[in-house]
Design brief:
Order of helices and strands of chain A: HHEHEEHEHHHHEEHHHHHHHH
Shape of chain B: elongated
CATH superfamily of the largest domain in chain A: Multidrug efflux transporter AcrB transmembrane domain
Structural class of chain B: alpha+beta
Largest interface: A-B, 89 and 85 residues
Largest sheet of chain A: 4 strands, antiparallel
Oligomer: heterodimer
Number of domains of chain A: 2
CATH architecture of the largest domain in chain B: Up-down Bundle
Distance between the termini of chain B: 22 Å
Order of helices and strands of chain B: HHEHEEHEEHEEHEHEEEEEHEEEHEHHHH
Strand content of chain B: 15-25%
Structural class of chain A: alpha+beta
Largest sheet of chain B: 6 strands, antiparallel
Number of helices of chain B: 13
Helix content of chain A: 55-70%
């Protein structure tokens, strides 16, 4: 199979519309940022995230009444009966998520005053309850402790598997009638199980913001520096412009889609910084090789156009395969990595696009600037930069 | 085939075997690649150690030392007053100079810097000593938490200092986060102090009932009020002496016992140094009340019936669970300062299970799509690329097993993404070979040229991605570090598989000696 045989596109021509499109996207992103602001996740804003799984239908109204400041939304498909509570930053450093969970538990489970909640309690506390009742007559020796610990662990492991117990039979399945009786007498099934809780204090949130910002800036600079050392200054500069472009486009889409800006998103952006440069490197490598081979004088834009055509099938194929993988992650990867997958997908598309269209824009600008400074015969060619790639190919030596 | 190729095959097979063995679960090692907290479920905490509390204790002790040394050297007692967490002022009585006290400070308090001020002397903890105290405090806290967590039976906890005054705690597989957090955070500073007067419902009430000369000698501490049956009914206040003759440091062991009516109590035994101290305290104060103070709350204040040697019992209105948790923290030692939670991430085991399932589904489908695309596009050479990818995957997983790197959810994404990127190396080579073929070169020459020309490019693309992965590692915490690690290992493996393995497969299929005419690419 072959997609691009001897391609001969003029990428230089597309540069002005491309710059306009990118500018519009980035400005639109900036507009959203200035009006609505960025949706900072709990990692950076501070506050708490709690994911609860309910035994019956999710009591949205009760939750909203109990936590007025929280943003509450469904988490995963509706039949999973899961909600995500997002609590805004609290004053001071404290165990925010833990406090809210405990409060909600008390409020929604009045039975908890007298009985133990099998959907809430950990295996050790369950073991203690069983130990005290001793339904299987094991006494109080170490073997009995071990016996009830194992029993409790099995029950709680089953809860983990199911997500939540919906009936006592589920909890008591596989245990003796005595244990089932004790569970019925001393325990009840609470209305929710806590799947996940996160608290980030204001201090850590601020620190992470600064750390994320500098990680992105420093890695972009390091990348530009590497290309500069490996190739030359203009390549380093234009590579950096492409990286900044890709990061801004990814951020713009983050704002369009109103995704949360989380640690995982920063990881995705840092990955884009390393990935999107690959197309650029491949193109530059080819330019360097062609400069050695082709004796006819060509300016930078012409060289780029030739190299891009020569490496086009590789660019499309590689981006295509990575894109396929990312599609699978978006579709099947679950809610935890959704933001991460989105940003990577946008970044991969933007990385390819910026290599093909933004890079030439920088190169043409550079050609114009240098030719203005040292006017030579090349000046005329800048106005009609695209020599057909095949013509260049025919002139190839070696 | 020449001997060189045999060596290469042997090397690749050896790599294959070693890494495959590393990732096969065995009875002794059922989980060769550890799951990260986000997949296994568990707690990740960042705690701040309030080291200023330890500094304050240090300052209190220094103030005591100055006064007692002054007494020992027959000097008039100075007035001491703490001004900040790390400094205090010594004011000599009217008429006496500061010289003698300065000498005491120089001799007995090397950790403090002395400056003269109009009031007398100001002693401030030296920055180096403060640093040392901070480090020691954090280190002690780490050890105490480690003992507690071990006593709870958490498998493979990670408890390490972070920065100046923080502790990072990772506890995999914990199913009761609230209780574990309570146990970690309990300071568990146990003190035995004598009670003055009776108790009252308000702090002012107790204070007012004391004679004036005792008012400076006591602290007013809250305790739980109980009815005749030992049930908690409210709060009441005690006046207890500031002096702490016996503390938690003198305990050798603590355990839950049954009290007179079967209620849970905590039995304790004392160390060799603690035993005579406790015996003196109880022997000299028969018929007075002894307050058992835990974290500045009076747990109980029993009457001293007789001299007690070696063993004792702490009564209080405990539930079974509270009693066993308290015994646990007393056994594992107190924290040198209280802790504040800065960050907590708890993943329940159910969510971890979902994440694994989704991560693997996504990876399997992603990988399948990758394989189909490559084989469809490159036919025979595509099969070669897929073999290289599979070896890449095995090396990646094997390396993670060897280094004990944890597999996290972003890490799973990292693996599949790495494979996507590893394809790039093959694509670069194959496209180059196609170009060479188009120019009319022979199959062998095209293969040789393709690999040679793509080499520099591949090294460049890998190095740039490695640079960004290093930044990622530097930035990340937990799961993201896992992602960076898989990215780094995968990139290394991909250079090996692209140049060594793919090349060798080409060499075997299209033998240099046979002048092959057609290349399936």
């Amino acid at each position: 199979m072959r997609f691009f045989d001897n391609p001969n596109y003029d990428f230089i021509k597309g540069r002005i519309p491309a710059v306009i499109v990118s500018t519009i996207i980035i400005l639109a992103g900036l507009g959203i940022y200035l009006t609505r602001g960025i949706n900072l996740g709990v990692d950076f804003a501070g506050g708490a995230n709690i994911v609860l799984k309910f035994r019956d239908a999710v009591p949205m109204d009760a939750l909203r009444a109990a936590e007025k400041d929280a943003a509450i939304q469904q988490y995963g498909p509706a039949d999973e009966r899961q909600v995500l509570l997002r609590l805004p930053k609290a004053k001071g450093e404290r165990d925010y998520a833990g406090e809210v969970v405990e409060k909600l538990h008390k409020q929604m489970n009045p039975e908890a005053a007298a009985k133990h909640d099998l959907n809430y309690l950990g295996s050790e506390r369950l073991a203690a309850v069983l130990m005290q009742a001793d339904p299987d007559n094991r006494g109080t020796n170490p073997a009995a402790v071990q016996y009830y610990n194992d029993l409790a662990k099995r029950v709680i492991a089953k809860r983990s598997e199911l997500g939540i117990f919906t009936s006592m039979q589920q909890a008591a399945e596989g245990t003796s009638t005595g244990v089932a009786r004790v569970l019925n007498e001393k325990a009840f099934l609470g209305r929710f199980n806590v799947l996940n809780q996160e608290t980030v204090g204001p201090q850590v949130g601020r620190e992470l913001q600064a750390k994320a910002f500098w990680a992105i800036v420093a890695s972009s600079l390091a990348m530009g520096l590497y290309i500069w050392l490996r190739f030359d200054f203009v390549f380093g500069l234009s590579a950096m412009i492409c990286i900044v472009h890709d990061v801004l486009i990814a951020m713009a889409f983050l704002l369009f889609l109103n995704l949360e800006f989380t640690l995982n998103v920063v990881a995705a952006i840092l990955t884009i910084v390393g990935y999107s440069i690959n197309d650029t490197v491949v193109t530059y490598d080819r330019v360097r090789e062609n400069r050695r081979k082709i004796k006819t004088p060509m300016n930078l834009a012409e060289h780029l156009n030739l190299a891009m055509n020569q490496t086009l099938s590789r660019t499309i194929l590689t981006s295509g395969t990575v894109f396929l993988v990312l599609l699978a992650m978006l579709a099947f990867g679950g809610p935890v990595i959704r933001g991460f997958s989105w940003i990577l997908t946008i970044g991969v598309i933007s990385g390819t696009y910026s290599t093909l269209f933004i890079l030439p824009a920088v190169a043409v600008a550079w050609d114009r600037w240098t030719s203005k400074r040292r006017p030579t015969a090349a000046t005329a060619r800048v106005e009609t930069p695209a020599i057909p790639a095949n013509a260049a190919r025919n002139r190839r030596v070696g | 085939m020449n001997r060189n190729v045999y060596w290469k095959i042997a090397l690749i097979l050896a790599v294959l075997v070693v890494f495959t063995v590393a990732i096969i679960p065995t009875k002794n090692n059922p989980e060769p690649i550890k799951r990260g907290l986000d997949l296994k479920g568990g707690i990740q905490l960042v705690m701040q150690v309030n080291v200023h509390e330890a500094a304050r204790v240090e300052v209190d002790q220094a103030m005591n030392a100055i006064r007692s040394q002054a007494a020992a050297q027959n000097l008039p007692a100075p007035v001491t007053r703490r001004v900040t967490d790390t400094s205090f002022i010594v004011t000599p009585p009217a008429g006496s100079g500061t010289a003698e006290y300065e000498r005491i400070a120089a001799d007995f308090l090397p950790a403090f810097a002395v400056t003269r001020i109009p009031e007398g002397l100001r002693l401030t903890m030296k920055p180096a000593s403060l640093k040392e105290l901070q480090r020691d405090t954090v280190e002690q806290a780490v050890q105490a938490i480690d003992r507690r967590v071990n006593a709870l039976g958490v498998v493979e906890p990670v408890i390490v200092p972070q920065g100046e005054d923080r502790i990072s705690i990772q506890l995999p597989g914990v199913d009761d986060p609230a209780r574990v957090k309570d146990i970690i955070k309990t300071t568990a500073q146990l003190q035995f102090r004598l009670v003055e007067g009776g108790q009252a419902d308000t702090a002012q009430g107790v204070f007012a009932s004391l004679p004036a000369n005792l008012q400076n000698e006591v602290d007013i501490l809250p305790g739980t009020k109980e009815d005749e049956l030992g049930r908690a009914t409210g709060v009441e206040y005690y006046a207890v002496r500031k002096n702490v003759p016996v503390s938690g440091r003198d305990l050798k062991n603590a355990r839950v016992q049954k009290g007179q009516v079967g209620e849970p109590v905590i039995g304790f035994s004392l160390t060799a140094e603690g035993t005579p101290k406790f015996a003196d305290l109880t022997g000299n104060n028969v018929n007075r009340r002894l307050a058992i103070v835990l974290d500045n709350k009076v747990v109980s204040a029993p009457n001293i019936e007789s001299r007690i040697e070696g063993d004792g019992v702490i009564q209080g209105s405990f539930t079974q669970q509270q009693a066993s948790d308290l015994a646990l923290v007393l056994r594992s030692g107190s924290l040198p300062a209280s802790l504040t939670t800065l960050e907590e991430r708890t993943v329940g085991p159910s969510l971890g299970r979902d994440s694994i399932r989704q991560g693997f589904t996504a990876s399997a489908i992603g990988f399948a799509l990758l394989v189909i695309a490559i084989i469809a596009y490159y036919c025979g050479a595509g099969v070669n690329a897929v073999l290289a990818l599979l070896l890449n995957l095995i090396i990646l997983l094997g390396m993670m097993a060897f280094f004990g790197a944890s597999l996290t959810l972003p890490g799973i994404a990292g693996i599949i993404l790495t494979l996507g990127m590893a394809v790039d190396s093959n694509v670069l080579v194959f496209e180059r070979i196609r170009e060479e073929l188009r120019e009319g070169k022979t199959v062998r020459a095209s293969i040789d040229q393709g690999f040679a020309r793509a080499f520099v490019t591949i090294i460049d693309t890998h190095l740039t991605t490695i640079i960004s992965a290093l930044f990622l590692f530097q930035f990340g915490t937990g799961p993201i570090k896992g992602f960076a690690v898989t990215l780094l290992i995968g990139l290394g493996a991909s250079v090996f598989t692209a140049f060594f393995v793919s090349r060798m497969i080409f060499d075997i299929v299209y033998k240099p000696t046979e002048r092959p005419k057609e290349l399936s690419i």
